[in-house]
Design brief:
about 60 residues, mainly alpha, 4 helices, about 70% helix, about 0% strand
């Protein structure tokens, strides 16, 4: 997973971890980062696209 997150920007990786691993809501992430919550969803979505690209390039996940 660490290698896959390297395909995302640091911001995307941080938000993906907070949302999926940390269990925070998008609003909680926005509050923590002092940004509008409308910025969180697209960032996570783009980060997930980058993770998919990693796994497409590395089918074994390595």
């Amino acid at each position: 997973m660490r290698e896959a997150l390297a395909y995302a920007t640091p911001t995307q990786a941080r938000r993906i971890c907070a949302y999926y691993l940390g269990g925070l809501t998008q609003q909680q992430i926005a509050d923590r980062e002092r940004i509008h919550n409308s910025n969180v969803c697209p960032s996570i979505r783009r980060g997930l696209c980058n993770l998919r690209r990693y796994y497409a390039d590395h089918p074994q996940g390595k």
